[in-house]
Each structure stands twice: as structure tokens, then as C-alpha cells.
Amino acid sequence: xxxxxxxxxxxxxxxxxxxxxxxxxxxxxxxxxxxxxxxxxxxxxxxxxxxxxxxxxxxxxxxxxxxxxxxxxxxxxxxxxxxxxxxxxxxxxxxxxxxxxxxxxxxxxxxxxxxxxxxxxxxxxxxxxxxxxxxxxxxxxxxxxxxxxxxxxxxxxxxxxxxxxxxxxxxxxxxxxxxxxxxxxxxxxxxxxxxxxxxxxxxxxxxxxxxxxxxxxxxxxxxxxxxxxxxxxxxxxxxxxxxxxxxxxxxxxxxxxxxxx
Length: 261
Ligand code: HXC
Prior knowledge:
alpha/beta; 6-stranded mixed beta sheet; 4-stranded mixed beta sheet; 10 strands; binds hexanoyl-coenzyme A
């Protein structure tokens, strides 16, 4: 890859993308969004990559939001809406990637950075991570899904509180609210993300994919339809070789070796 704003590290089963514009706390420029879109294309089509980890470069920030310096080039509502849709389209892709996405939040996750973290399946945070939607302090509102995904995770009133005040949550508070799954010392964050990625990469890929789809799509529909969706994915599992392997491995008292078929 010849990305200017993203570093790639990969090992068997997973890829780690580090968003890297450390001088501006990894703010999301249009160029970075385009590169991230390319990187997601690559992760999606590379079968050997079963898990994606995203993190930010440096000690201080995951992503401090959209690149505010680019806002001065926006002249009217239509252009701003277009930028919101550009980011939302990419973030939807990340949220719906048929592979687990682990967000390793190493510092500030603000505005678009918090919104990006919310697109992960699992959020790990370092002790000094901070989450917030400070757009209100710029006289604007979140545009990459903050008013929608945040409310679905922390509830309506907490989302309104955070978006209206711009107040930041500590990692511990975000953990208590269910936004973060695990809080770790900064020095352990990436190791934990990698070991979790390795663990997930050894699970049955189709079952992982159906868990993700069932939960993700289920949240947008009523319970009855959601349960039907779950039953249909449950059925699909029984047509896979990995189901036979998983059950046999259990009965033979050995670890399973899944193939994604
Ligand atoms: C551009 C940014 C930036 C951003 C930080 N920088 N955040 N540049 N866009 N979002 C730059 C600073 O200008 C500064 O550059 C350098 O990074 C270091 O930041 P400091 O402010 O000096 O650091 P510090 O005092 O420690 O404060 C950290 C901070 C603060 C609290 C995170 O930087 C901050 O409030 N940033 C903005 C956060 C924000 O409002 N995000 C939401 C953006 S709107 P120099 O050149 O001075 O060294 C958004 C909307 C998404 O995300 C949807 C769009 C459609």
C-alpha cells in the first residue's frame, strides 16, 4: 500500500490499521477517509484477514474528529451534507463489514473519532481514552452517525446530554455505559487487541458473520422479525462444514479447525 495516512500491520488472521496524522491528533481529512475506504476494500476482499483492528497513531489520540481546517472550504449546506454522507457511507461499510472490527481506542475519540469507534463490534479503550461529541462547541451537530449510533448504545437521554454539552466521557464512564467492553493500561491496549483478534480469527467465520448480521440488522427491526432472522441464520449454520467440524471436535475432545465453509 502507498497510503500516506494509514499504517498497516498484519499477521495470520488479522490486520491492524493505524490512522496516522499525529500532528493533528489523527483528524479525519478527506484524503484519510478515501484511504480508509481503500483499506476497507482490501480487508473485505482478503480472505485470510478475518479480523480488523483500528487504532490511532501516538499516545494522545485515537481520532480527534473530522479535520476542522477543511471546514473553511465548505460554502453551503449541500457541500456539508455531502461530506456527512461521504463519511457515513464509509462508516456504514465498516459497521457492516462481514468480519469483526475491534476499535483500540488509545486516546481522544471525539466527534468523528467517537463516531468511528461506534462502528466497531468491540471497543477496547486505554485508561486515558476520552469519548465525546464536541461538535456543539463549533456550532454544528455530529454528522458521521453520532446522533444515531450513540443513542442506540447509551440511550436517548445520555446521547442528548453528550451531544448538547459536548462533555467527554472517561474510559471508565464509557465502560459503565456499555460503550466500551474493556479498559486497559495504555501499554497493554494493542497486545490485548491483537490477542482478541487472533482468538476471533480462529472462530468459525460464517458463524461470526451471522452473529454480526443478526445483531446488527435485528436492532433495526421488531423483535418478532428479528427472532425469525436469527432462526434463519441458525439454519444456515447447519449447512456448513464448520458446524460438522465444531461438533466433531467437541465430541473428540480436541480444538476445532474452522475453514469458513
Ligand atoms: C484539525 C485538529 C483537530 C481536528 C486537534 N487538531 N483536533 N486539527 N481537526 N479535529 C490539531 C490542533 O489544532 C493542534 O494543531 C494539534 O492538533 C494538537 O491539538 P491541541 O488542541 O493543541 O491539543 P490539546 O490542547 O491537548 O487538546 C486536545 C483536544 C483538542 C481536546 C482533542 O485538540 C480539540 O478540542 N480538538 C478538536 C476536537 C473536535 O472538536 N472534534 C470534532 C470535530 S467536528 P497545532 O497546529 O495547533 O499544533 C467532527 C464532525 C464529524 O468531527 C462529521 C463531519 C461531517
